Amino acid sequence: MAETASPRPTFVRPRWATAPVTAGAFLVLFWVGVALTVQWWPIDNPVAFVGTRLAPPSVTHWLGTDALGRDVVSRTLHGAQYSLPVALAVIVSAVAIGATLGAISGFLGGLADSAVMRLVDITLSFPAIMLAMAVTASLGPGLWHAAIAMIIVSWPNYARLMRAQVLAVKEREHVEAAVAAGASAPRTLIAHILPLCWSPILVNATMDFGQVVLLVASLSFIGLGASPPTPEWGQMISEGAQKFYQWWIAFGPGMAILSVALGFNFLGDGLRDILDPRTQ
Amino acid sequence: MYRYIIRRLIAMPLLLLGIVSIAFLLTHFTKGDPLISIIGERQMDNPIVVAAARARWGLDRSLPEQYLIYIGNLLTGDFGTSLRTKQGVGVDLLQRLPATLELVVAAMLVGSLVGVTLGVVAAHYRDRAADHFARLFALFGSSVPVFWSGLILLFVFWYTLGILPGPGRLDTRTMAPPDVTGFYTLDSLMAGNLSVFAESVAHLILPACVLGWAVMGIISRQVRASMLDVLNQDYILAARAKGASEPRVLVNHALRNALIPTLTIVGFSFAYLITGAVLSEAIFRWPGMGSYAVDAARNLDYPAIMGVTIVGGTAFLLTNLVTDIAYAFVDPRIRFR
Fold first, then answer.
1. What ipTM, to 2 d.p.?
2. A48 partner at 20 to 30 Å CA-CA among A181, A257, B51, B162?
3. B336 pLDDT exceeds 70?
4. Which residue stretches of chain A have pLDDT < 50?
5. Residue A245 forms contact with B (CB below 8 Å)
């Protein structure tokens, strides 16, 4: 008689679901959930003066209150509503611009290629924060201006990646076959080349997400991003730096940035292992 | 290989011109009126003052004219005058350069010492607890905002425990050592003043650790990866077969070769260091180029913003050039590209 299956089916953990990836996914999902739902949570209004000023952590205010008596936990949680959408907008636009230019540059070659690549070279020869600071300063302080600055410093990496991918895929036989079968140039690029080019871009975009959150917060910390009373994380840390002895003011937003960046870094690492079989 | 180097060198002036042009364009297509930061908001209604200030700062000329004048001045080493300090931007930057360099060198020292050690340990204990710990420690370093970790460390080690000094390069009452190199550590040693030396080192510890932690991650990951490559090779097996001790195999045989690819990381981590320096100088009130950049951006001091951006870009470009050339010398495979 054939051996019967074990009574309870054992859960087989997929090979890629390592502890870091799981932790990363958990952190990211938590913050996305917060960003989407925080306005319905039964917590204090992030901009209302709800307690005594500079009160240390207590049962009513888990991370105390800031210089104006606003609840730090509530402000930290509401901060997700600013940082995450801004970072998403930055990444999506940077990928769209970078991938389009990179694909055209790799596919056409020649003059278009050199023009795009020189622009990439020049942009990449600035340290990102300095260029971002200069752009934000010239647009004038503001969260969305900081986002524009981040798009300007982020797209060249994707252009480079996409160009390298297109150059490699262009030589494959199925592309040759498509051209021989009479596919037009745009069709060859869009239907036969691009679908094979996305995985490294996806990995990089995931990893960059955390860095963008970090840099946007940095710009706000410097005073070029969000302005008071916005509960933006970098802005909150800058307020906490002024009230140095009340450590709890900066603690919430600091942990928030750290956990978001860590989450995306873990996730990106894991995603790379899934999408790129060579590293396994 | 020389063709490779020459090609890189030819591209340099063009890239520099690109950097200058972008810095110029950015700061001139701007909504904020630089006049406000020159003469103040109240005087903006006074047409005589406005016209005088425009003429004084060359703002009455056309954009191409301003651009050519700026480039001409740059060639003579003149970066223009800061609207905020009313000093030459070049003078300002030179004054502040040593503070930043001292911090960056100290941070690089911390980052590479700990980073290389972590990388070797992680490779030796691959997939075991020590490896996971090293990875976690490195990832934390590149995820934590330095302007926050700096605050926390100051709070713990200065305010609470009192074992390390607070912000600044020296205690407020201490006189700076006579200026030779601008590095307080070196200058105080040269002046034979050991107490100032100890003080300047103590002041360096926290900012250097904060900054070093940020680059530690990249270094340790790279060292781990190339150690793993090297440890699989036959000559390592030979060394072990001869009876070389494990530390000797790891350090004398494996690490030596594993460090070559790590060279490329130096240029890359420089970008992290600059980012980190800008932000941690603000927290540690470190009078360097980073805090200068922050002040310039906050006050819409356009000549200073341009100067800092150009110097930062140039420094970054040069580091990358030097690393790439050094790499081409060390690794013969590059030469034939």
1. 0.85
2. A257
3. no
4. 1, 279-280
5. yes
Nearest CA to A92 out of A6, A209, A181 is that of: A209
Q: What is the Cβ-side half-sphere exposure of residue A208, based on CA atoms within 13 angstroms?
A: 25
Interface check for A36 against chain B (CB to CB < 8 A): the answer is: no
Closest CB to A241: pick one of B23, B283, B313.
B283
| Min Cα–Cα distance to chain B from A49, Å | 24
Of all residues in chain A, the one with the smallest CA distance to B305 is A134
Q: State both tokens at A255.
A: 């942990």
- The model's pLDDT over A67-92, given as tens digits with 9 standing for 90+, comes to 887 888 889 999 999 999 999 999 99
Contact list in A for residue B127 (CB cut-off 8 A) is: none
Q: Say if residue B319's pLDDT is above 70.
A: yes
Partner B contacted by A31 (CB < 8 A): no
Q: B151 and A133: CB-CB below 8 Å?
A: no
Select from A272, A259, A156, A174 the least CA-distant residue to A213. A259
Which chain A residues are closer than 8 Å to B33 by Cβ?
Answer: none
Q: Between A139, A140, A222, which is nearest B294 by CB?
A: A222
- DSSP tag of B88: B
Q: What distance in Å separates the CA atoms of residue B53 and residue B47, rounded to the nearest whole number?
A: 10
- State the Cα–Cα distance between residues B302 and B30, nearest whole angstrom: 10
- Look at residues A103, A107, A104, A113 and name the one whose alpha carbon lies nearest to residue A171: A107
Q: Which residues of A touch B306 (CB under 8 A)?
A: 134
Which of B140, B148, B311, B319 to substitute to test the interface with A, most A CBs within 10 Å?
B148
Q: Rounded to two decimals, what is the model's pTM?
A: 0.87
Question: pLDDT by residue (tens digit) across B260-312?
Answer: 777 777 667 776 787 788 888 988 999 999 899 988 888 888 888 889 889 88
d(CA A131, CA A148): 11
CA distance B192 to chain A (A): 36
Task: Indicate which of A31, A118, A130 best probes the interface with B, i.e. most B CBs within 10 Å of its own CB.
Answer: A130
Amino acid at B198: A
3-state SS, one letter per residue, for chain A: CCCCCCCCCCCCCCCCCCHHHHHHHHHHHHHHHHHHHHHHCCCCCCCCCCCCCCCCCCCCCCCCECCCCCEHHHHHHHHHHHHHHHHHHHHHHHHHHHHHHHHHHHHHCHHHHHHHHHHHHHHHCCCHHHHHHHHHHHHCCCHHHHHHHHHHHHHHHHHHHHHHHHHHHHCCHHHHHHHHCCCCHHHHHHHHHHHHCHHHHHHHHHHHHHHHHHHHHHHHHHCCCCCCCCCCHHHHHHHHHHCCCCCHHHHHHHHHHHHHHHHHHHHHHHHHHHHCHHHC
All structural domains of chain A: 21-31+71-279 (1.10.3720.10)
Tokens of B37: 């930061």
Q: How far does A150 lie from chain B, in Å, by closest CA?
A: 14
Any B CB within 8 A of A237 CB = yes
Strand partners of residue A65: A71
- Given a contact cutoff of 8 angstroms between Cβ atoms, the answer to whether A264 and A206 are in contact is yes
Q: How many beta-carbon contacts under 8 Å exist across A and B?
A: 159
Helical pair B2-28 and B302-330, crossing angle rounded to 10 deg: 160
